[in-house]
Sequence to fold (554 residues):
Amino acid sequence: MTEFEKLADLLFPDITKTPQDLEAQFPPRNLKEGARVTRFAPSPTGFLHIGGLFAALISKLNAKTTGGVFILRIEDTDKKREITDGVSEIIKGLESFGVEIDEGVVGFNKESGAYGPYQQSHRAEIYHVIAKKLVQEGFAYPCFCTEEDLTSLREKQEKEGTVIKGYFGKWAKCRDLSFEEQKALIESGAPYTLRFRSPGKEENKIKYDDLIKGKIEMQENFLDVVLLKTDGIPTYHFAHAVDDHFMRTTHVIRGDEWVSSVPLHIQLFKACGFRVPKYAHISPIMKEENGGKRKLSKRKDPEAAVTYYAKQGFPKESVIEYLLTLANSNFEDWRRANPKAAQSEFPFNIKKMSTSGALFDLTKLIDVSKNVISLMPAEQVYNYSCLWAKDYDEEFYNLLTRDSEFSKRIFEIDRDTPKPRKDIAKFSDVKSYSEYFFDELYNNDYSEMPENITKEMAVSVLGAYINEYNHADSKDEWFSRMKSLCEPLGFTPNVKEYKKNPEMFKGHIGDLSTVIRIAVTGRRNTPDLYSIMQILGEDKTKARLKKALDFYEA
Fold:
């Protein structure tokens, strides 16, 4: 038995499984050729960031478009920073925006799939099996340096002006301890971490092909990083290699803050005897500020949290549609050519992602969302509005659901047309959009009259229209009746004629209909007025016309 093997038995006396046992337990997946296995691996240390949702979406698309598998793995080894219900918040955030989990953590203490456990805190034995192998082969060793020792090391490196700072070469004082020294320290109860014995050289370079950023050349890793902390919990670096190998991840898609760690990660995969996955590093989502750009911040920007979009009532389809415009620049051209196609039909290509940070534009999201909602069937808009109101506006929810057929008719106005209206960007807008249909919310504000319409004109228009109004009219009959009122009242039914000779008329048919619109809705701009009056009904419409007439006559 070699001294490395003796050391491994000393460090891991309870580990009897071998890497071969794990290979048998987690065999290669039986997927079609070219199928990609991807994962989203967040820490439950805060809310789900929009950048996290973006990364999860890209991972999901890569798996889905190739007939592969998308995994949710939870990296919960940092118990000090973990928040209550953090895992549930992550799952809820993904599900709320339609990023479906194929395998992994699917609920509180609930997993699905044959390659788990999917929470790192439950995988200690797996890490220790591979750690033992690394010690046996001389790729890992115990480090007994205290915090004071490491602080002293950094101070010495500062004094000497060492360019690269860290635990390596002559600074790695535990690297070359004899087996007898290691054994004595272990048996004395001295705390230790397990470090990687890097085979790298300071002067060497490595090259790798990033699926987003292209070919990258970097300095080889030569630092002896920590693999296991003093409590036996793995660092991110070690857990990444072990987890992604045994979950059979083919493509690691993550934020580009991890680019600098790629040399270490490649080294770890090779030292463990694992196949290196493909890497794709996503640039961060940026925000414009004071003429410059910065990362979207968890602390500064409410829109950084995916819960912001749920509270505002952005439908999941709108958020994903907008993120797809950030993911591939050709998405918008595809959407123009396929206005009603499902998002899943878009031929997403990770190699077409931008190498620089995408700029998050809330105004553009609103425009995208208006278009998405305008194409939804009325019943879907009603159902989404009710779901939002149930969580965030109980009073409005009760009004919407009091007479569901009445409410659904509101959303049918101007919807099934070649150019549907785009009044609603998010479901928190629906109350304002529809309030004049509900007496409890209606505000009879008559102050928004066009500049060329006086009180006296309004009185004459409303007085004449009340006598002419027939609720049984078809839309064409209703419009003909409106036009017939124009000339007797000094208006023209022809807008172009008014623009040509404005001094000859009090206004045009648009002005006349605006007087009626304001009387019925309290607004100058609404969807189709005829449809509004049909939904309100004859009695309510006449009552509002009469009330407005009384106001102008007073």
